[in-house]
Amino acid sequence: MEEIPIIISDQNSKLFGILRTSASCKKLVILLPAATGTRIGPQRIYVQIGRALVEENIASLTIDLPPNGDSYDVELKVFQGTYKEKLTQHYKNYLDKITGYLNSNYSFEEYILLSISVGCIPVLYYSKLNNFSRVILLSPNHLSDEVPKINKKNLKVYLQKVFKMSTWQKIFTLNLNLKKIKSNVFASSQKKEKGKSKQGTDYLLNEAKLTSQGNILNIFGEKDHALQKNQLFWQNYVQKHKYSFYTEKLVSGADHSFFGWSFKIEVCNLIVKWLNQENEYLQDEKIKY
Amino acid sequence: MEKVFYRTRQSNGNFYKVFLHLHKPEKGNGKAFVFLNPFFDEKKRVQKFYATTARELGKIGFTVIRFDYYATGDSSGELFEMDYIHCMDDISNVIDYLVTEQKLSYISFLGIRMGASLACDFAKKDERIKELYLIDPVLEGKKFLLEQRIRRKAFHKLNKMLEVPGTVEINGESYEDHQGFLLSDSLIENINKVNLFHSFLEEKKLNIFSVDFFNRKQLKKIKESFDKDNLVEYIEAECGPFWASLETVNTSSLTKLIIDHVEKF
To answer: What are residue A16's DSSP bridge partners?
Structure first.
């Protein structure tokens, strides 16, 4: 196995990753972090998966998603639309650079995208847009187009600030910007606007026109808090978009990020087994821990 | 200029491939920083801060090396092979690289948490290290391990993962499983030995930064106990313990504090 550190750069961006390959590898799995993750994945799971794949003659690329890890590029906020639309464009921008680099420097026959959690939907869109035949999704969340009434992330940040001296100083000197706090926490609920030609909206509307011949492998953790909701979403999604083959696997005892040595091994084994098989539909199967 | 590469070291007939990330300035000032990672999942959460701070140091002429200890990050080896002795050997390997290949002799460490503790332990024995920048060093290894165990218990309880065993056996050896990070008996023993109260550094310039409110009293005590020659600076930063946060934390204020401090001296 060769582990090749790579830098994909242009005037305003640099993406850092590791390509793991050997002379006999013709296919490549690109392992993409979730929105706040780094290229090694939760508890280094991506490194483990990447190395296991090379043993099966499948190359892998792990690469930091900006602005996390070592990579940098334009930030999410420059894109238009809802959070889902922004995230999708952000991943597209990032994946265009990656696939552009790979096409110029290597000659892999097939790209298979893999992501986790909130990275899954944008990665799936990209896969469909580029007619990739297979996608692997770990603990895929569903992303709503609706803006939640309360921004929980910002609320958490403000709650943490309650314990800081500087916050109380602002309160006692009447320097706290309540208007700003209110607008950051209480976003008004809005549905996706139809017919408006924003870049992100156009991109997602096209999804309905894309044919979905690809195969999806979804791996969930049994103890994932949102398991039922996510499973239901994906089963409906796959039916609606007429995916050829959809395989769902459940890792018994595992949480959303598969935190645990044996869970990581199980995830590696499931991925390798699925990639090695011919295109066929498999029944749901519970994997014993 | 940034360069990413592997460097192999040899020890007892075995080869260990370590991942390095070099930040080389356009115009160097003859000085270098080696960044030392914290342990386990904390490494992932400080990576962005390290990358940003390394780039800022590069703008003012410092060469910076970041690396992954053997069996962590992108270095070779399985997680269960992580060992304190390997970490020390990796640090030595990086210092050798800076001295022999980059021709730099003024070397400082920047470490966070266990990285800061390792920095102190290594610097005790190596004259080449001139200055240390320590961000909330782990003062007592026993306490650190206790925190990890409590955190694991809380995690399993919160997620109703009550059947997950706390240990894993691989090739006849038993390891503590901390949500996928495996701790060998040897690693546990060496972490338990970490105690900065008993042996702090003398004759080295120490800059201690604190972002953890609950650690500040002890770090102030360290300064009072060990600052015989006025070589210990203690600085409080505002950004909070970002190595423990699941969300992205803005650490730009800490980066600025470090750069200001480096430029001042």
So the answer is: A7
The one-letter amino acid at A198: K
Report, as an integer, the average pLDDT of B1-25: 94
Which of A18, A68, A261, A289 to mutate to probe the B interface, most B CBs <10 Å? A261
Q: Are A36 and B248 an interchain contact pair (Cβ–Cβ within 8 Å)?
A: yes
Q: What is the DSSP letter of A117?
A: G
Question: In the numeric block, which tokens belong to residue A80?
Answer: 């238009």
Reported as a single tens digit per residue, the pLDDT across B177-227 is 888 889 999 999 999 999 888 766 777 888 999 888 778 888 888 877 777
Closest Cα partner for B259 from B33, B18, B71? B33
d(CA B25, CA B23): 7
Taking only the tens place, the pLDDT of each residue in A7-21 is 999 988 999 999 999
Rounded to the nearest angstrom, the minimum Cα separation between B205 and chain A is: 29
Q: What is the mean pLDDT of residues B44-72?
A: 96
Half-sphere exposure of A237 (CA within 13 A, CB side): 19
Query: What token pair was written down for B111?
Result: 């470490």
Q: Nearest to residue A68, comparing CAs of A17, A2, A19?
A: A17
Could you tell me the pLDDT band of residue B11, with boundaries at 50, 70 and 90? confident
Phi, psi of B231 (to 5 degrees): -105, 5
Query: Which amino acid appears at position B247 of this protein?
Result: E
How far does Cα B136 stand from its chain's mean position?
Answer: 10
pTM above 0.95, yes or no: no
Cα(B145)–Cα(B241) distance, rounded to whole angstroms? 17
Helical segments of A75-151, H only: 83-105, 120-129
Q: Does B195 touch chain A (CB under 8 A)?
A: no
Residue B17: beta bridge partners? Answer: B8
With a CB cutoff of 8 Å and minimum separation 6, the contacts of A161 are A167
Is B180 in Cβ contact with A45 (below 8 Å)?
A: yes
CB A77 within 8 A of CB A98: no
Confidence tier at A209 by pLDDT (50, 70, 90): low
Do B115 and B123 touch, CB atoms closer than 8 A? no
Encoding tokens for residue B14?
Answer: 């075995």
Subunit contact B79:A260, Cβ cutoff 8 A = no
ipTM value? 0.92
β-sheet with B31-36: strand ranges across: B2-11, B14-23, B63-67, B31-36, B106-112, B129-135, B205-210, B232-236
Q: How many CA atoms lie within 13 A of B224 on its CB side?
A: 6
**CB-based burial label for A253 (10 Å; 0-12, 13-18, 19+):** buried
pLDDT, residue A148, reads 60
Task: Order across the sheet with B167-170: list the strands.
Answer: B167-170, B173-178, B181-183
Select from B136, B141, B162, B133 the least CA-distant residue to B233. Answer: B133
